């Protein structure tokens, strides 16, 4: 191919790929078959390989996260990445203010920024193009994590101006991504991340950039490496400039000319920060004028012109009453601590996962102990330690039983795992959790068939596996406690309707180890029928994008099992659809693409509450759209609410929704911010005008 022709083709390919990326990642719809997308990408990579001069770092071929690296290269920072001095109380802040005024005089402006709980990164741009992303490391030498940084969607590959700068900021994992990640890890029987910071750090440390790409990370930039070079006079101007370049700067900040106002601002965020979509652990206070920053200078470790105020860790002492074991869908035996209720980070907490046996022993936690509990990353409650000084001698050290507490069969611990598992496929707990999973929204989505009903059905011996659900009669359902005529009718209908689901829902519902909702979709789209998938070999499976050897092995093993074969056969006889139906079910998006039924389900028959101020859409219009898509809007948050759309400054409704989620009254309640709401509307075919 001629150079000119190659140039044109590369341009077209990039445009097309960016379009499909946007559909897929931002709008959650699929506008192209996977293999066609792969073909476009392959052609682009091939052409860029043939004409290396045409390869630019902002090409979409650079975002997918190429090949895993062997290890990270070391990078020496041109300007060291320093740390901050800490203030733990308001006294420390007064000291800081006094010191500053002692040096630069009385005219000082402070900028207050939320301290984001993630890890510091450096983003280097040359002539407007992202050329390197690095970790802080020891401050002098960090690691080159460019390929991972490129996968972060709010890090521009190209700035709005062709400038050469080094921006610094915090890479973090938004709460929603964090919760989703841990949910998936739990489903797949992997260890959970204790907090969003660990999750963000762990994701950026992955040698395979595809993993980082899936983790939903984000970056807020908060400074320029060497401010002296740019035509800005103050920190706040630098922030505004970076924002105008397309970098993401946190919009929450305050500017004050005295320390009392700074303190009031800190105070005003101490509770409110729990409502933010990302975790924060304090406030950073910076002298605004660069000339004054220069005058103040640095100590070896940190600038004298800034300080980090740390909110006190939310900890409480309480008494551990019981360690209960629960069996998950994968058979994992998880110990949970039950203690006297305490208030932590805005909610009442009375239990915390202890994860596994080793942690209990490491922290020497015994039933009857006084214990210290806290919310890790202000989100997930955990038992920090025991307080042995209060012991009476009656406290009992924990011992993992030899048998499953539900079925009594021996439990197993694999050499490289921390968890014990019940491996009896007929264990009632496994069956129960499996059924709850089977009917859940991302699986067969049988509306109205919640956990309570599953428990009753099992209790009355009306079902023993998923296939039995399809033989339930109206009369049988009416026999359940508190089941009315109408609900029974609706349930029978919902169960019958689920027979027509596309293959991926069933596939996910089967609960094959390591197969999450996304992988189920990939598998369904690749094999089209359950028959074909059942017969797939390891090689065929691993040749598919995103299906790794471990998952492939788990799939083959699942279908080789006679119990699974029987279940699939019984589901087939019950009349379940076992084919991939793709995204086409009649609805189309604003640009004519088919709407995935999955997207419509985010609205159909769901109860919405709108709260806070919506910046980009009119509330009345929003309600109309929800109704148009088959949902309803109500005014107050209750157990009946399915989705809370929380705009800016959402207050009590948001807190109430969070409580309902956290205390288990409505764990499926979803909280969408305005952006997500708009994206879902658009994905469902609404032209919101954005
Ligand atoms: S300014 C010279 N601003 O906190 C150091 N840091 O404890 C400049 N952090 O290493 C740091 N949010 O990783 C700054 N708005 C913010 C921040 C922030 C989080 C982190 C950063 C730093 C650590 C210091």
Structure description:
The chain is an alpha+beta fold. It has five domains: 3-62, Helix hairpin bin (Helix Hairpins, Orthogonal Bundle); 74-310, D-amino Acid Aminotransferase, Chain A, domain 1; 315-412, OB fold (Dihydrolipoamide Acetyltransferase, E2P) (Beta Barrel); 428-573, DNA polymerase, domain 1 (Orthogonal Bundle); 603-683, BRCT domain (Rossmann fold). The strands form six sheets. Strands 12, 13, 14, 16, 17, 19 and 20 form a seven-stranded antiparallel β-sheet that branches. A five-stranded mixed β-sheet has the order 2-11-10-3-9. Helix 24 links the parallel strand 21 (607-611) and strand 22. The chain is globular, with a radius of gyration of 27 Å. Residues 583-594 have low confidence and may be disordered. Residues 82-84, 113, 115-116, 120, 170, 222-223, 284, 303, 306, 308 line the site of 2-(butylsulfanyl)adenosine.
């Amino acid at each position: 191919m001629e150079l000119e022709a190659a140039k044109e083709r590369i341009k077209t390919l990039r445009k097309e790929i960016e379009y499909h990326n946007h559909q897929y990642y931002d709008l959650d719809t699929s506008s192209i078959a996977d293999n066609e997308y792969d073909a476009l990408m392959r052609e682009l990579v091939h052409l860029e390989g043939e004409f290396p001069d045409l390869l630019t770092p902002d090409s979409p071929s650079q975002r997918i996260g190429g090949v895993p690296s062997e290890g990270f290269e070391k990078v020496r920072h041109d300007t060291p990445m320093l740390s901050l001095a800490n203030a733990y109380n308001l006294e420390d802040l007064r000291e800081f203010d006094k010191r500053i005024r002692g040096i630069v005089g009385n005219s000082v402006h402070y900028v207050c920024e939320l301290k984001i709980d993630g890890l510091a990164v450096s983003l280097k741009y040359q002539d407007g193009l992202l050329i390197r992303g690095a970790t802080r490391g020891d401050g002098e030498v960090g690691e080159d994590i460019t390929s991972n940084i490129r996968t972060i969607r709010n890090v521009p590959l190209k700035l709005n101006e062709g400038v050469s700068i080094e921006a610094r900021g915090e890479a973090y994992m938004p709460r929603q991504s964090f919760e989703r990640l841990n949910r998936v890890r739990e489903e797949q029987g992997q260890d959970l991340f204790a907090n969003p910071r660990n999750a963000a750090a762990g994701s950026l440390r992955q040698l395979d950039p595809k993993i980082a790409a899936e983790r939903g990370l984000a970056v807020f930039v908060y400074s320029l490496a060497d401010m002296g070079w740019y035509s800005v006079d103050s920190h706040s101007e630098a922030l505004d400039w970076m924002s105008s370049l397309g970098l993401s700067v946190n919009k929450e900040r305050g500017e004050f000319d005295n320390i009392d106002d700074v303190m009031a601002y800190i105070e005003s965020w101490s509770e409110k920060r729990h409502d933010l979509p990302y975790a924060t652990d304090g406030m950073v206070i910076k002298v605004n004028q660069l000339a004054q920053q220069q005058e103040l200078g640095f100590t070896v470790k940190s600038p004298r012109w800034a300080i980090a105020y740390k909110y006190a860790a939310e900890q409480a002492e309480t008494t551990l009453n019981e360690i209960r074991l629960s069996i998950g869908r994968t058979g994992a035996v998880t110990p949970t601590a039950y203690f006297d209720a305490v208030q932590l980070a805005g909610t009442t907490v009375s239990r915390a996962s202890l994860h596994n046996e080793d942690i209990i022993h490491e922290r020497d936690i015994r039933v009857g102990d006084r214990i210290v509990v806290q919310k890790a990353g202000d989100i997930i409650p955990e038992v920090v330690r025991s307080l042995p000084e209060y012991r009476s001698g009656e406290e009992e050290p924990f011992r993992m039983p030899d048998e499953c507490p539900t079925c009594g069969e021996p439990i197993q611990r694999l050499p490289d795992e921390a968890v014990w598992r019940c491996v009896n496929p007929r264990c009632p707990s496994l069956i129960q959790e499996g059924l709850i999973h089977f009917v859940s929204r991302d699986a067969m989505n049988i509306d109205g068939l919640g956990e309570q009903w599953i428990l009753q059905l099992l209790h009355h011996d009306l079902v023993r596996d998923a296939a039995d659900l399809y033989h339930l009669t109206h009369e049988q359902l009416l026999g359940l406690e508190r089941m009315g005529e109408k609900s029974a009718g609706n349930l029978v209908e919902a169960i019958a309707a689920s027979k027509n689901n596309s293959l991926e829902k069933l596939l996910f519902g089967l609960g094959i180890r390591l197969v999450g909702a996304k992988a189920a979709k990939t598998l369904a789209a690749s094999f089209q029928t359950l028959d074909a998938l059942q017969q797939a070999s390891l090689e065929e499976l691993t040749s598919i994008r995103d299906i790794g050897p471990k998952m492939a092995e788990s799939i083959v093993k699942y279908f080789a099992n006679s119990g699974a074969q029987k279940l699939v056969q019984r589901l087939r006889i019950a009349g379940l659809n076992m084919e991939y139906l793709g995204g086409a079910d009649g609805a189309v998006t604003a640009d004519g693409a088919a709407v995935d039924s999955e997207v419509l389900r985010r609205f159909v028959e769901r109860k919405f509450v709108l709260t806070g101020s919506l910046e980009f859409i009119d509330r009345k219009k929003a309600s109309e759209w929800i109704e148009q898509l088959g949902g309803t809007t109500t005014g107050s948050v209750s157990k009946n609410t399915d989705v809370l759309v929380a705009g800016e400054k959402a207050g009590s409704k948001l807190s109430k929704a969070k409580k309902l989620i956290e205390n288990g009254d409505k764990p499926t309640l979803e909280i969408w911010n305005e952006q997500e709401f708009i994206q879902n509307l658009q994905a469902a075919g609404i032209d919101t005008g954005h």
